[in-house]
Amino acid sequence: MGQTTLGDGTHDLSELRARYDELVHERLPETAQAGENWPVHLDHCFGRIVLDNLFGDEWYDHVDGRPAYEQLSADELADAVEIAERMLDGGAGVTRELNRNSLRWRGKLDDAEG
After folding, report:
1. Is residue 111 part of a domain?
2. Residue 76 placed within a domain
3. Within a domain: residue 4?
4. Residue 75: which residues within 8 A CB-CB, separation 6 or more?
5. pTM above 0.85, yes or no
6. Would you tell me the crossing angle of helices 74-105 and 43-55 to the nearest 10 degrees?
7. Which of 73, 71, 28 is nearest to 49 (CA)?
8. From the CB of residue 36, how many other CB atoms can be counted at a distance below 10 Å?
9. Dihedral through CA 55, CA 58, CA 63, CA 64, nearest 10?
10. Which 8-state DSSP code applies to residue 35?
11. Which pLDDT tens digit goes with each residue over 9-64?
């Protein structure tokens, strides 16, 4: 049995971590590489997008320790998995929108592009 939270016990951290890992390190990169017009293709880019959108800011200002997803609370991790699943389901368009958010928070997107 996996590690559960101290809250209501509905989130199994081991399962959430495994799902996050599968989505960010396998499914999203594979889907992007097989598709067209995806703004990113590498797993660390998907991780950045998910975590930045989770916090509405640069994730490393909110997380101590690495790997970052192993430092998240159960609720944060569940939300991160939801974001990654939304990217997988929504494809390149959703990923592009969330990537633009991430780049804007990092000061890497011109206002004219925003």
Report:
1. no
2. yes
3. no
4. 5, 7, 11
5. yes
6. 100
7. 28
8. 7
9. -170
10. S
11. 567 999 999 999 999 999 999 999 999 999 999 999 999 999 999 999 999 999 99
